[in-house]
């Protein structure tokens, strides 16, 4: 094949026009990136293209699904029987525990009603399947198969049987993106179960761990302490397990202790998760004081004004800023 | 005519396949080693067909598609692929006739440059700096490059496509 001399690609010198074109495209991309980062209107574009994007996700996760199906199809009969037996036993045990829990819950309900609080123990949840497209090395996220059509909203907490998984950061028509608690951009206000000490658990940069970088020097924290959500920050309801502390070391600055915790939710293995519909309980900053001036009959809908802004006040912008929302949820209220 | 059309669809098909490969979920441990497939395939076509097929505009649009699919900052991969294709096209005449090991080294340099660019973009977007393992991907890509190049070239010859 004789090599034709092409004027368009000379051996050494490049053309000025090519460089100019590169500059043009780079500038265009810069503008796009800035627009997207500032989160103006580009999310609409994403929403519209979701129709095309979603089937591609499904296509991409086909190999993994295929392997799963194969492993089920070729599983040993004896293995399945054993598994079935074990699951039955587990179910029995779980049911027995549930019954006992139900009794305790009822008692608790009665006591709480007695105390005239409006908190309820019932969980309003929706079960979701993990579609499971992990999308980056430094970002811990997953997709679930519920979306805007199922009433999912950005900011809802996601849990599994063992603890908090994360929260919804982006909603598409038929699926939603969940930011896991171990994502470097994520923070959860937590409370140490044994002592009640409040602090914040951040996602950790290089492993599937949580890090608590600002525990006071004098605090009583050991390995093995359990972390619960504290309900501050107004996003996660109170009392869900978050993790268990593995190690406590002095931080680099020497001002604080730094603890590392393993998340209690099965982030790797979770196949089905629950999306919570409950609003967090009104803990944290006090609700805005009701207006004292005019009589109650003339005040415009006092009940709703007291409840509505409260859920969104403590540092949770309702704009769909993905990263921003995740970073601000754990902002300490001090 | 139909052969021309077939070779066009072959070109589009390899690009689309590279996008799907990019999205295939891997176990968490392997995630850092995932090669940057779209860049490899685009690089192959840039070296093979040059400006007739792979232009900066195509790289830009392809990058935008990849951005939409991965859900990262819109324009991030567009910038990376544009720069990659620009350098590849500029040195195409030389890169094509390099022996394979030199070509692989050149690809490694291109992909390292690409990672560096990504680092800059991420830094401007305010994301945290990635762990050291994050730099493994270009090396994996470079190791895969000769095989990918030979495979695509062989398929192209066999199907008698342009």
- Are there runs of chain A of 5+ residues with pLDDT below 50, and where? 4-13, 116-121, 301-334
Named CATH architecture of the domain at 123-284 and 322-334 in chain A: Beta Barrel
Shape of chain B: globular
Number of helices of chain A: 6
Q: Which H/E pattern describes the elements of chain B?
A: HHHHHHH
| Largest sheet geometry of chain B | none
Continuous helix count of chain B: 7
Q: Strand content of the residues of chain B, in percent?
A: under 5%
Mind describing the biggest β-sheet of chain A? 6 strands, antiparallel
Largest interface: A-B, 48 and 47 residues
Range of strand content of chain A: 15-25%
Secondary-structure class of chain A = alpha+beta
Q: Over the alpha carbons, how many angstroms does the gyration radius of chain B reach? A: 16 Å
Number of strands of chain B: 0
What oligomeric state best describes the polypeptide chains here?
heterodimer
Pfam family, one (chain B): MreD
Family (chain B): Belongs to the MreD family.
Protein name (chain B): Rod shape-determining protein MreD
InterPro entries (chain B): Cell_shape_determining_MreD, MreD_proteobac
Name the features.
heterodimer, A: 334 residues, alpha+beta, Thrombin, subunit H, six-stranded antiparallel beta sheet, six-stranded antiparallel β-barrel, 6 helices, 33% helix, 21% strand, B: 162 residues, mainly alpha, 7 helices
């Amino acid at each position: 094949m004789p090599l034709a001399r092409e004027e368009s690609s000379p051996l050494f010198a490049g053309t000025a026009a090519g460089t100019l074109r590169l500059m043009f495209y780079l500038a265009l991309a810069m503008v796009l990136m800035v627009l997207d980062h500032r989160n103006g209107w580009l999310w609409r574009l994403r929403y519209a293209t979701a129709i095309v994007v979603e089937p591609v996700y499904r296509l991409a996760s086909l190999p993994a699904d295929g392997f799963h199906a194969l492993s089920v199809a070729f599983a040993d009969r004896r293995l399945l029987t054993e598994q079935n037996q074990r699951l039955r036993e587990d179910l029995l045990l779980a049911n027995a525990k549930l019954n006992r829990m139900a009794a305790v819950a009822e008692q608790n309900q009665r006591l709480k009603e007695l105390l005239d609080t409006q908190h309820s123990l019932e969980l309003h949840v929706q079960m979701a399947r993990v579609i499971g497209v992990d999308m980056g090395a430094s970002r811990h996220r997953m997709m679930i198969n519920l979306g805007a059509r199922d009433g999912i909203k950005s900011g809802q907490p996601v849990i599994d049987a063992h603890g908090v998984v994360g929260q919804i950061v982006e909603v598409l028509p038929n699926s939603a993106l969940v930011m896991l608690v171990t994502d470097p951009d994520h923070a959860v206000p937590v409370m140490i179960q044994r002592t009640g000490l409040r602090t914040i658990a951040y996602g950790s940069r290089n492993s599937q761990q949580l890090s608590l970088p600002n525990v006071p020097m004098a605090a009583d924290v050991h390995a093995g302490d359990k972390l619960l959500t504290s309900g501050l920050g107004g996003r996660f309801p109170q009392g869900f397990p978050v993790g268990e502390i593995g190690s406590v070391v002095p931080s680099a600055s020497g001002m604080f202790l730094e603890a590392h915790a393993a998340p209690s939710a099965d982030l790797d293995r979770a196949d089905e998760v629950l999306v919570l519909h409950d609003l967090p309980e009104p803990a944290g900053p006090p609700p805005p004081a009701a207006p004292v001036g005019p009589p109650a009959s003339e005040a415009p809908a006092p009940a709703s004004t007291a409840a509505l802004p409260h859920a969104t006040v403590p540092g949770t912008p309702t704009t769909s800023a993905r990263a921003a929302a995740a970073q601000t949820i754990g902002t300490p209220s001090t | 005519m139909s052969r021309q059309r077939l070779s066009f669809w072959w070109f589009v098909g390899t690009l689309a396949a590279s996008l799907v490969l990019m999205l295939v979920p891997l176990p968490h441990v392997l995630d850092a080693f995932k090669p940057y497939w779209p860049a490899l395939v685009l690089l192959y076509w840039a070296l093979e067909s040059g400006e007739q097929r792979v232009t900066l505009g195509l790289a830009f649009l392809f990058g935008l598609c990849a951005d939409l699919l991965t859900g990262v900052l819109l324009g991030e991969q567009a910038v990376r692929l544009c720069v990659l294709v620009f350098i590849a096209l500029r040195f195409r005449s030389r890169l094509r006739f390099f022996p394979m090991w030199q070509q692989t080294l050149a690809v490694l340099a291109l992909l390292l440059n690409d990672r560096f660019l990504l680092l800059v973009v991420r830094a401007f977007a305010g994301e945290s700096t990635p762990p050291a393992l994050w730099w493994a991907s270009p090396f994996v890509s470079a190791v895969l490059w000769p095989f990918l190049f030979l495979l695509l070239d062989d398929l192209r010859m066999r199907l008698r496509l342009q």
